Amino acid sequence: MRILVVEDEIELQEAIADGLRMEGYAVDTCDNGEDAVEFVFCENYDIIILDLNLPKMDGYEVLLRIREDKPDIKVIILSARGSVDDKVKGLDIGANDYLSKPFHFAELEARIRNLLRQKFVHQNNIISCGHISIDLSKRTSWIGDTAIHLTKKEFAILEYFLLNPERVISQEELMEHVWDQNMNHFSGSVRVHIASLRKKLKAILHDDPIATKIGEGYRIVNGKCDESC
Questions:
Q1: C-alpha dihedral, 82 to 88 to 89 to 91, nearest 10°
Q2: Hey, which of 57, 65, 80, 144 has its CA 20 to 30 A from 41?
Q3: Rounded to whole angstroms, what are the CA distances from 200 to 91, 111, 147?
Q4: How many of the other CB atoms lie within 10 Å of CB of 184?
Q5: Which domains does the chain have, with CATH numbers?
């Protein structure tokens, strides 16, 4: 999943971004409201973490601009403004959640997971396709009773497939949601990671659960275990 962190306190911005990247999220950052609006309208994000006290454009104005054209993006306000009035205003103009500073990173992660569950209409942290399952909270994956040892990027790709079952996903869409803005679009990285993920899944399933639709992209199909799973 791809996240934009909008925070003008650079140390905090970097700490949040580094923590989320360690959990396998693709993260972009910016430190002012004008850049935030430009990023949102140029890229596709699953979640935005938005400070309110921003230079160039206030966070409330950024949120209003986002909601004008991209009402489906999940937005978490993360702000030192912790009064009830601030929270009510933020939620009323379109924020999905509001977390006051100071905060615990574990709570921010939990709120991100909660919004992702809402976005993809899942009721718990475990999602599956056939015998392939992942735990969004623990960031673990398995087939049947066998753990799959994936890199963070492989896990992120599998996560996106399972959150979009049976839908053909283009390379461009994967790049938009699994990689950040530093991705080299000509590097072949998507194909390399797909090939590696396929190899690990096939080693357990003895079949390929990732179907390729030539000229369109990839989709996850119902991964069935044989007796060796």
A1: 100
A2: 80
A3: 43, 31, 11
A4: 9
A5: 2-119 (3.40.50.2300), 126-220 (1.10.10.10)
Is pLDDT larger for residue 70 or for residue 210?
210
Burial 186-200 (b: 16+ CB within 10 A, else e): eeebbeebbeebbeb
The number of helix segments (H) and strand segments (E) in the chain equals 8, 11
Judge whether residue 118 has pLDDT over 80.
no
Mean pLDDT across 137-164: 91
CA gap 104, 40 in Å, rounded: 26
Question: Residue 123: its pLDDT value, please?
Answer: 47
Among 166-180, 192-206, 214-228, name the one with the lowest average pLDDT: 214-228
Give CA separation, 174 vs 17, 29, 152, 167, in Å: 20, 19, 14, 12
Two tokens at 48?
A: 């935005």
pTM of the model: 0.67
């978490």: which residue's tokens? 76
Q: What confidence tens digit (pLDDT) does each residue in 63-103 have? A: 999 998 888 899 999 999 888 998 999 998 889 999 999 99
Q: Does residue 92 come out as left (phi exceeding 0), alpha (psi in the -120 to 50 range) or beta?
A: alpha
